[in-house]
Amino acid sequence: MRRVALRTGAVVPPRSDRWHSQPTPTFGGVAIALATIAGMVVVGDWGRPALIVMGASLAMWGIGLVDDAWRLSPLAKLVSSLVVAAFLFFLLRSVPNFGLPAAALTLVAVVWFGGLVHAFNLLDNMDGLAAGIGLVAVAALAMVFSGQLGTGVVGLLAALGGALIGFLIWNHHPSRLFMGDCGSLFVGAAVAGSSLVVMLEQPTINQWTAMPIVLAVPLFDTLFVLVLRRLAGLSATRGGTDHLSHRLVSSGLSEPRAVFTLYGLAVVGAGIGWFLVNARTFAWPLALVFLVGLMLLGIHLARVPAYDGDDFVAFQKAPFAPFLGDLAFKWHTAEVLLDVVLATVCYYTSYRLRFEGESLSIFGPSFGVSLPVVLGCKLVALYASGLYSRMWSTFGLRDLATAVRGVVGGSVLSVLAVAYAYRFERFSRGVFVIDGALLLLAIVATRTSFRWMAQAFATRNVASRRVLIYGAGANGRMIAREMLENPAMGMTPVAFVDDDPAKVGRHLHGVRVYSAEGSLSDLVDRLAVAELLFSTKAVAAGREAHAVAVCEGRGVKVRRLRFEIT
Fold first, then answer.
1. How far apart are CA 104 and CA 1, in angstroms?
2. DSSP assignment, residue 508?
3. Sequence spans of domains, the chain
4. Which one of 11, 270, 307, 421 has the lowest number of neighbouring Cβ atoms within 10 Å?
């Protein structure tokens, strides 16, 4: 297909709203569709649902092929996908119904299909991303919902998975072949159509919940982009380099690492989906933790610059701008709501950890009875402790003490309230101890998440200069922290050098301290140091001269840190 694309001129040139920098052949979607059909022929056991889903996928493939050749408008593609969804649902549904539930289910199915198809279309924005996420999605659907899908649809998903594996050989970074819109729409339609088969099999609430979690990455990426583009006053249908993958790269990750990070999230979502369907004990807490983590990652990446300043003019003039400025941008409302979710999950999990079997059936009802009281007590204590006046980006030991005060106070108030209201009958002190420990862990994890993500991305920033800091004192620690938390500096601390034996071998902000007695030349070579920064004046003259000579001989820049108050 690559040769055919080159001969026919089906080559995608670099554009300002696209990520690739070299002309790349397309038509990979043709190969994916043909390989999937061949795989289904080999499987042989098709079945009516599989043929219907395959027909819808080929219809979207044809629409994508026309778009690749003649550039359809976003509206035309949207209408086409909804039409295909309507006919797909009509053919899949064997038992007709009348009334509001039937109408609601039809609307949900049509919107779900159209949204998921275009989610995969939007996800095709970096080498190997859409194909890899599609591979995880089809594998997860086949494993988690095999009972509802039947052998025919599972065979279709297996054939598509094999086609995607073969395509990834050509599409991984640096890509030699793009799937094009025909490929992304085909994959999205196959995944969306298969999920509709599950919807029509009267799934349980856990199965309903598992579906969006299994497909969390494409859905979240689409929601993330659409919301931020509207806030920036931009068209939601325009192309751009503002997706999760692009922002991960802008945060410091290399392109392959950004793609594999999203692969990892997709695999975690698939695993949690399996737990929701098959192992239900801790499935709901795991699902909520995953969704909260995804939300925190989205908030962190939303702070990464992706638009021009002029893009926000429309947003600033919008009538809802003051409302958003007072609530979402001041953060507190979302912070309190997050703690409500965390407190609920921790309280529920503490019951699951403390009781099982018959004892859970005896003590379990007390969870629902006491939850409103416990939530109220915890929120009062957290607010009174001053937790909501603390900055997440600078969360430290004093903030940890504040969190401990709030959590302990909330637990004490909860015990007193439950003892007063219910005489502590069918309640366990152990539940409140476990609950307090879990809630403290959850609060600290969420509050430190921004610092952790900033430092994790900074240490993997392939574009920043690798800096060796001479001196692990207060100044050295301060500048290292600033480098890790401020990507705009373009500097990554890779090591400290210090003459204090008590510091040697330890880590400061995740950066190791090496002895000044060791071989500086070996350290510079091994860590690929690009710059040496003296953070202190208290360096012996001989050692400073030796360090400068080593660096100058290797073309390593030498600078000194100075603080001035004028």
1. 42
2. E
3. 2-325, 331-452, 464-560
4. 421
